[in-house]
Structures are given as structure tokens and as C-alpha cells.
Write a structure and sequence with these properties.
One of its GO terms (biological process) is SCF-dependent proteasomal ubiquitin-dependent protein catabolic process. By secondary structure, this protein is an alpha/beta fold. It folds into 3 domains: 179 residues, Sandwich (Jelly Rolls); 172 residues, Ribonuclease Inhibitor (Leucine-rich repeat, LRR (right-handed beta-alpha superhelix)), CATH 3.80.10.10; 137 residues, Leucine-rich repeat, LRR (right-handed beta-alpha superhelix) (Alpha-Beta Horseshoe), CATH 3.80.10. The protein has 15 helices and 23 strands. The strands form 3 sheets. The protein has a 12-stranded parallel beta sheet with strand order 12-13-14-15-16-17-18-19-20-21-22-23, covered by helices on one side. Helix 6 links the parallel strand 12 and strand 13. Helix 7 packs parallel to helix 8 and helix 11 packs parallel to helix 12. The longest helix is centred in the middle third of the chain and has 22 residues. The chain is globular and about 75 Å long. It starts with a helix and ends in a 5-residue tail after the last strand.
Length: 620
């Protein structure tokens, strides 16, 4: 055969790769990115582009605002812009609950799961529905304050307005990028170059990571551009970045690896080799240690190589700690069924964000826990909308050793279901943020779960009397170290007194946006005197906080690290200086909208106390 033919074959393969890559263009940057493909494509036939704002906010993981108002809530993302192109802190925008790394540096911080893939860095999400399903050509995100948090944009094949639910729900990543630091808090229109997909969508999901931000990111609106007919790319070639080809191959490997959760977890036929090479010379424990650094998809792929590695990859010791949150879009009942034999010794399990839109059924979840729940110590189920009363009952029956339970934003669980949690007397951490837990169930939990150390009741709007709850905490939860009462609407100085008297080990207390607390009653000075171990105290938006309260904190809470007094009108620069001089470990001080603390004072304090991050927000 002529040597020309192999060369033609190689060139043909390369040309095919280029066309294939060209058809699935997905750069990892904005349109002005240095690495963006210089696109010369045009759609054939020509379609009229449809431009639409989000019609509805379907789901989200957290927000700064209240469940009973529109200020700072995710619901502000629906419709046309309220603020853009203005910059600054506006209540009409969508704001997530956290920013920076401050929440990872407080007593309530949780240990991270190992084996989290480097490509997954999402901390929060919001899902938006649009009127018309289209093939996306662009997504514009209007960011009005501290931009740069969006790290991933996804599209879903399911139409949220269809009367017939699809047999299969697919999610495709339109764009993703690691968190980046944006210079300045000013507003911008963020328009990353997105990948083309082969199905129309009217359901877009934004995932964010705010760890590099100096303050809360604020989003105003999302605009979806698209066409009704699937674009057919012309064969006109363009410049192609070879690094983009590598990135596309990485994404394909990731997708392939996750498909193995449903296909290769089961027993496969493997060829038995007469020798395993150098692996025969390594101790079993050393091979296990090496494999412990692999992600779950990598373990699945490695298990297909030979029987020796298959045995190692299926060893339950590899699944003591397992986080499936990075793979939320692909986890279903079949995945859990295949994992059962490997997770008989599992102690930490993260199923946050998984199972929605019918992917995980109540029966599938129950079957898994009945096999794998006996050793569970930590169970993360944030935003698990498939959970119901049966699921909580199974958790309490099948997980006798459970110490940590996260039900954050599981807002579909009915109120009466929370009574079952009282059966888990070993609980040390319970997160009920944005749930429908009611007072009777919570009182029962506090009565029987006396080992509680960390409790989150933020935005639990169905509790009628927080004073009664605080009194029960003071009487029963003597080991409490952190307590989140963010936006509880009816706690008074009476409840605070009971809490401070009984829970003197408290190191973290969030009383942000609690309007019924008034400094004139002495509630904050009582806290300062009774809780000397406080490291984090949020009194956000309490306008009554005054110099006396700050001076009491300076005198009694010298271990204080984080203090939020946003919105107070009664605190002077002199009391803040006393606080900063006394609390040597203070690292975060939020004085946004404090009328007596202007920018000049902030600059002076920053100069004299350079180790403290002093935040002064603004509105233009």
C-alpha cells in the first residue's frame, strides 16, 4: 500500500476531530477571552432569534431574603431587570446566603468530603424557567454587585410547563469555569460563550461559587437567546485552539465516567491475566491508599481493567466517605442500586441536590438506606425534593448511629414528618434551614436530642413562638456550640435570656434580621456577659444595636472573630475602636449602612487594624 494512504487517513481523522469539535464549541471564558474560538459559523437555515427573560424561578439552594417578601430573594430573577445597569446593593436583586470563606472559618463549619472532582466547585444554584423552548445561542446574566460568582450554566431537556413528564431528563453543561476574582463590584452583563446542544430547552440552571468575593453577589436578570429550529453548522472552518480539544476530551471522559455509575457498577466480565505486574508486589493496604485519591468516575473506569483492580475498586473501604453531589444530574435509582454492595460500611454520605424530577424515588432511597444505613454518621440531603415523611421515617429507623443530618432547603417535606427526627437521640448537628418544621416537632427534637452541638433554624417560618424554642434549648441543649436563628420573626429578650443562661458553650450565634430584638431591653448586653466564648455574632439589620452593646462585647467576648452589625444607626467610631483593640482575633466586621460609620472612618480603621476585613456596602 502506498504510504500516501495512511497519511490521508490520519488527515481525515484530524479533519473529523476538528469538525466534531467545531460542532460542540464550548470555550471556558467570556466572548472576549483570549482562548475563545473565532467563530465564523452561520446557521443553516436562518432562524429568527428569540430573546426572553426568565418567566419563573423554579428552585434554588439558598437566598439572603425572607420567605415572605421579595427583598434579596431569588424570585427577583424572574422578569425584566429591576436595577441593571446601576451598581450597588439593592433589595430588588437576587442574593445568595453566603459569600467569601467566612462561613468556612466559624465553629459550625463542616469538614469537606474528599474525592470531590476539581471540576466541581459549585456552592449554590438557581433554576429558571422560560416561556419558549429554544436551542440556546447565548445566555446573558445581569450582575449588579460583586460579579464573578457564576461558575456553571446548564440546560435541561425537560419542559417544566409540559403536561407529560419526559421518560428521561438530561442536563447539559453550556459553560463552566473555575471561580475568578473580578476587579471591582460594578455591574456588568456576563455573556460567556456557550456550547451548542442537540435539544431545545426552557430550563436553565446557574451554579455559583462566591468564595473569592468580598461581599454578596447580586443578580438582576437572566436573558436567554435561542432559535426554534436546531442550527446546522456550515462546513466553513475556523481557528481552533488545541487546548479546547483537550478540555472537550476531559468533559467526555467525565460524562463517560458518570455513565458508568449506571452501567459499570454491576459485575462485568474481565479477562484474567496470569500476573498483575508490579501490583502483585504491593501490599493490599498500599493499593487501597493509592486508589483513595481517585474520584468516583475514575474508580468506575479503573474497575474495568482487571480482576485485581476490580476487587480493590469495589472494596467497601473505598466508600467510607462518599459524595454524589458533584454528579447530581446523573444519579438515580439505578445508581443507588449498583452502589449498595459497595457502601455497606459507609459513614459519610452526601446526596445533596440529587434525585429531583423523579430521578430518585422514595422506594429507591429507602432500599439503599436499609442496606447501607447502619454505619451512617453523617447524611447530607440538601435540596432533596424527593424526600417525604416515609424517607425521614426510614432514616430514623435505619441509621441508629446518625450524628449529622442536613435537610437544608428540603421545602417539600411536610411539617408532621419532622417528628421522626426526635427518634435519633445521637444527633449532634441538625440543619433545618428553609424547611417547614413546626413548633411541636421541633420541641420534641430538642427534648430528645440533648447531644445537639450545631443547630440551624434559619428562615423556618412556621415556628410560632421562638421564645418557647429558646427556653427548651436552654433547658435541654447544654452542649450547643452554634445556633442559626436567621430571620426568626418573634424571638424576644425573654428567649435570649433563657438561651444565654442555659447554652453557655455557644461560640456562634446568628440573630440577623430578627426585628423583635431591641437593645433597650438589655438583650445584647446579656448575651455578651453570659457567652464569653462567642466567636461569631451576627446582629444584621438590627437598627437598635448601640455603643453599649459593642463595649460589652469588647469587654467580655475577646475571642470574637466575626461581627455583623449591618444597618445600625447607634454605633460610633469610638466604640468600634475599643472593640478592635480588645478583640485581637477579629477578622470580619460588617458595618454596611451604619449611618455613623462613613468611608473616611472605614479607611482609618483599615489603616490601624489591617488584619480585619471591614466591609462598608453602598447603593448608587
Amino acid at each position: 500500500m502506498s504510504p500516501v494512504f495512511p497519511m490521508l487517513t490520519v488527515l481525515s481523522m484530524f479533519y473529523y476531530m476538528c469538525l466534531r469539535r467545531r460542532a460542540r464549541t464550548a470555550t471556558r471564558g467570556e466572548m472576549n477571552s483570549r482562548r475563545a474560538i473565532e467563530s465564523n459559523t452561520r446557521a443553516l437555515p436562518i432562524n429568527v432569534e428569540i430573546v426572553q427573560y426568565a418567566k419563573e424561578v423554579l428552585d434554588f439552594s439558598s437566598h439572603y431574603g425572607s420567605e415572605n417578601s421579595m427583598s434579596y430573594t431569588m424570585w427577583n430573577l424572574a422578569g425584566i431587570p429591576n436595577v441593571y445597569p446601576s451598581s450597588g446593593d439593592f433589595t430588588q436583586t437576587a442574593v445568595f446566603r453566603t459569600y467569601g470563606t467566612w462561613w468556612d472559618r466559624c465553629p459550625s463549619a463542616r469538614l469537606p468530603f474528599k474525592r470531590t472532582p476539581s471540576t466541581f466547585c459549585s456552592q449554590d444554584y438557581v433554576e429558571l424557567a422560560f416561556e419558549e423552548p429554544v436551542y440556546p445561542t447565548a445566555v446573558h446574566i445581569l450582575e449588579t454587585y460583586h460579579p464573578g460568582a457564576v461558575v456553571r450554566i446548564l440546560a435541561c431537556s425537560a419542559n417544566p410547563y409540559s403536561q407529560n413528564p419526559p421518560a428521561e431528563v438530561r442536563w447539559e453543561i453550556l459553560w463552566s469555569e473555575a471561580p475568578t476574582k473580578v476587579n471591582g463590584p460594578q455591574a456588568r452583563q456576563f455573556t460567556p460563550c456557550i456550547k451548542q446542544i442537540n435539544f431545545p430547552t426552557n430550563l436553565i440552571r446557574l451554579e455559583v461559587n462566591s468564595s473569592l468575593l468580598d461581599y454578596y453577589t447580586e443578580l438582576d436578570a437572566v436573558v436567554l437567546h435561542g432559535v426554534k429550529e436546531r442550527p446546522v453548522l456550515s462546513l466553513k472552518t475556523s481557528m481552533i485552539d488545541m487546548n479546547d480539544i483537550d478540555e472537550e476530551e476531559d468533559e467526555e471522559k467525565f460524562a463517560c465516567g458518570m455513565d458508568t455509575l449506571n452501567k459499570q457498577f454491576s459485575i462485568v466480565t474481565l479477562r484474567e491475566w496470569p500476573t498483575n505486574g508490579y501490583f502483585d508486589k504491593l501490599p493490599y493496604e498500599l493499593i487501597q491508599l493509592i486508589l483513595s485519591h481517585l474520584t468516583v468516575p475514575d474508580l468506575c473506569r479503573l474497575a474495568q481493567t482487571c480482576k485485581l483492580l476490580y476487587q480493590h475498586c469495589c472494596d467497601p473501604l473505598q466508600y467510607i466517605h462518599l459524595s454524589l453531589q458533584p454528579y447530581w444530574a446523573r444519579i438515580n435509582d439505578t445508581s443507588l442500586e449498583y452502589l449498595q454492595s459497595r457502601c455497606t460500611l459507609i459513614q459519610w454520605l452526601n446526596l445533596s441536590w440529587t434525585g429531583n424530577r423523579g430521578a430518585i424515588s422514595v422506594s429507591g432511597f429507602s432500599r439503599f438506606l436499609k442496606v447501607c444505613g447502619s454505619e451512617l454518621v453523617r447524611l447530607e440531603l440538601s435540596c432533596g425534593h424527593f424526600l417525604n415523611e416515609t424517607c425521614l421515617e426510614v432514616i430514623t429507623e435505619m441509621c441508629p448511629n446518625l450524628q449529622e443530618l442536613n435537610l437544608s432547603s428540603c421545602d417539600k417535606i411536610p411539617p408532621q414528618a419532622f417528628n421522626h427526627i426526635a427518634k435519633v437521640g445521637s444527633l449532634k448537628r441538625l440543619i433545618l434551614y428553609r424547611t417547614k418544621v413546626e413548633q411541636t416537632a421541633l420541641l420534641s427534637i430538642l427534648n430528645f436530642c440533648s447531644e445537639l452541638q450545631h443547630l440551624s433554624l434559619g428562615s423556618c417560618v412556621m415556628i410560632e413562638d421562638y421564645d418557647l424554642i429558646a427556653s427548651m434549648m436552654g433547658a435541654k441543649c447544654k452542649k450547643l456550640r452554634s445556633l442559626d436563628l436567621w430571620r426568626c420573626k418573634n424571638i424576644t429578650e425573654s428567649g435570649i435570656a433563657e438561651l444565654a443562661s442555659g447554652c453557655q458553650l455557644l461560640e456562634e450565634l446568628d440573630l440577623g434580621w430578627c426585628p423583635t430584638l431591641q437593645s433597650s431591653t438589655g438583650c445584647f448586653t446579656n448575651l455578651a456577659r453570659r457567652l464569653p466564648n462567642l466567636q461569631k455574632l451576627f446582629l444584621t439589620a438590627n437598627r437598635s444595636v448601640c455603643d453599649t452593646d459593642i463595649e460589652e462585647l469588647a469587654a467580655n467576648c475577646t475571642r470574637l472573630r466575626q461581627l455583623d452589625i449591618l444597618g445600625t444607626r447607634m454605633v460610633s467610631p469610638a466604640s468600634l475602636r475599643k472593640l478592635l483593640e480588645s478583640c485581637k482575633d477579629l477578622s470580619l466586621l460588617d458595618v454596611s449602612f451604619c449611618s455613623q460609620i462613613d468611608n473616611r472612618v472605614v479607611l482609618e480603621l483599615n489603616a490601624n487594624f489591617p488584619n480585619v476585613f471591614i466591609k462598608k456596602s453602598f447603593t448608587q
